[in-house]
Design goal:
alpha/beta; 5-stranded parallel beta sheet; 13% strand; disordered N terminus; binds adenosine-5'-triphosphate; binds magnesium ion
């Protein structure tokens, strides 16, 4: 058959792939048929095309999830087809099929974003295994996506505001961390949302019904932290004092969030390390060890590596806590989230006071140019303060603190040195795109129009930036 064809989906026998849509692109009919059969037996809906052109048309109209692409198609070169497919459907998982002895092109295809490759001739079992992997990969991706959306949405406790590529990257890690039980070290400047992220990890995970217990290691006196964390036996401190359970035991299947963990005194660091390693604690004044079942999340705005090299933080504990680590970007690294965060805090104020307020363009401009050393917390305070100061429905620059107010006439980036620095074209392009989005209040479609590029290109670039950073 020479014309392109669509194979009508059949009811799958096994539901492993659960109606995922697979497109087979190959000019050899026998191969198309064989691939179709194997894929359908795994539960895929299959579509087929014998040319790149027809594949492009099918991609969008049929919501294709995965593509099996012959790299030796007549007409368009395989790599060109791969790039085009990626640009039409960036989420599609692409497996390339190469001829014997052309593994070089498969390697290039993987570099260009293909998920995997298979060399012709291949056995049906080989194909089955490969497609099985594709199905599991897609399933995991969609589970992670659902979780990410949940984290971003306002449901539950873990609502995190932000749609910048930096935050998208963070959501991916938070989603992964939520599924694991390893300790996570959350890094970030003050006010970036470390506790918000810790809550999000706990409340998005399977043990969300168990307790989430924050402990501020920075504000408690050392003896108190010890008895808070590990508990104490009857009369441990004074004659008739009752025994008390430690928070590590009370958490019972839940999470203890050690905030400002860098402030923990060195002797308690040793005790905490033992508790994590042995999964048991010894309450103050007791000789007995009690088993614990707790997940540890820790946060700090201090440079812990530096503390380790200065000997004020135990290296072994640092490694224990740092099994997974994530760094929350400062607000100035993700200015495009400022409008969304500001309106979130404005909405909250209007719900609390029953009075709706908006930001004037100039006020927003000044906020976009400001560096926010206190990050989201500072922005939150700034909005609350402005709501209290202004008498009308619109917040003007004069309602903002002086340090922000004076920036309304300056352009972004506020740093003049940065504007005159010699930069690679790719960096200039990146800044142009991010600044346009920030200045247009996060409106990506408008930004693409103003920049004179297609929206697909803009989204692709944002994705690239996210994966690079
Ligand atoms: N992405 C976000 N979306 C919504 N609110 C946020 C976000 N990040 C931070 N906040 C808000 O900003 C404030 C500071 O957040 P949080 O206490 O989590 O920061 P932190 O990094 O723990 O700060 P610190 O180092 O000072 O303890 C909180 O009121 C929180 O609700
Ligand atoms: Mg905090």
């Amino acid at each position: 058959m020479t014309t392109a064809e669509i194979i009508v989906p059949v009811i799958p026998k096994i539901e492993g792939a659960n109606f995922l849509n697979l497109l087979v692109v190959d000019d050899e009919r026998a191969i198309r048929e064989a691939c179709r059969e194997v894929a359908q037996s795994l539960g895929f809906n299959t579509f087929a095309a014998d040319s790149a052109e027809h594949a492009y048309r099918l991609l969008d109209s049929h919501g294709i999830d995965a593509v099996l692409l012959d790299l030796r198609l007549p007409g368009a070169g395989g790599l060109e087809a791969l790039n085009r497919i990626k640009s039409i459907r960036s989420d599609a998982v692409i497996v390339v099929v190469t001829g014997y002895g052309t593994v070089q092109s498969a390697v290039q295809a993987m570099k260009n974003g293909a998920y995997d490759y298979v060399t012709k001739p291949f056995s049906l079992d080989e194909l089955k295994l490969l497609l099985d992997r594709v199905a599991s990969h897609l399933k995991l991706k969609s589970e992670n996506r659902i979780l990410r959306e949940k984290i971003k949405s306002k449901q539950g406790f873990g609502s995190i505001i932000g749609r910048s590529p930096e935050m998208e990257k963070l959501y991916r890690i938070v989603a992964k961390a939520a599924h694991s039980t390893h300790p996570v070290l959350i890094l970030g400047e003050s006010g970036t949302g470390k506790e918000v992220v810790a809550r999000s990890i706990h409340f998005s995970g399977p043990f969300r019904d168990k307790p989430f217990i924050p402990v501020d290691c920075g504000s408690l006196v050392p003896t108190l932290i010890e008895s808070e964390l590990f508990g104490h036996a009857k009369g441990a401190f004074t004659g008739n004092q009752q025994a008390k359970d430690g928070l590590l035991a009370i958490a019972d299947g839940g999470t203890v969030f050690l905030d400002e963990v860098g402030e923990l005194p060195i002797d308690l660091q040793a005790k905490l390390l033992r508790a994590i390693q042995e999964k048991e604690i010894r309450p103050v004044g007791s000789t007995k060890h009690l088993p614990i079942n707790v997940r540890i999340l820790a946060a700090t705005n201090r440079d812990l590596e530096e503390a380790v090299s200065q000997g004020t933080f135990r290296r072994d504990l640092y490694y224990r806590l740092n099994v997974l680590s994530l760094r929350i970007p400062s607000l100035r690294e993700r200015r495009q989230d400022i409008p969304m965060l500001a309106s979130h805090f404005l909405e909250r104020q209007s719900r609390a006071n029953g009075f709706e307020r908006t930001l004037s363009d100039d006020a927003l401009k000044a906020m976009l140019a400001y560096d926010w050393p206190g990050n989201v917390r500072e922005l939150e305070n700034c909005v609350e303060r402005a709501c209290a100061f202004t008498s009308g429905p619109v917040i003007h620059p004069s309602d903002l603190p002086a340090a922000i107010n004076q920036l309304q006439y300056e352009s972004i980036p506020s740093n003049a040195a940065a504007a005159s620095k010699i930069m690679p074209m790719s960096e200039i392009e990146r800044q142009a795109i991010l600044n346009a989005i920030a200045q247009l209040n996060g409106d990506k479609l408008k930004a693409a129009r103003v920049l004179g590029i297609g929206k697909t290109t803009l989204y692709r670039k944002l994705k690239e930036y996210a994966s690079r950073s």
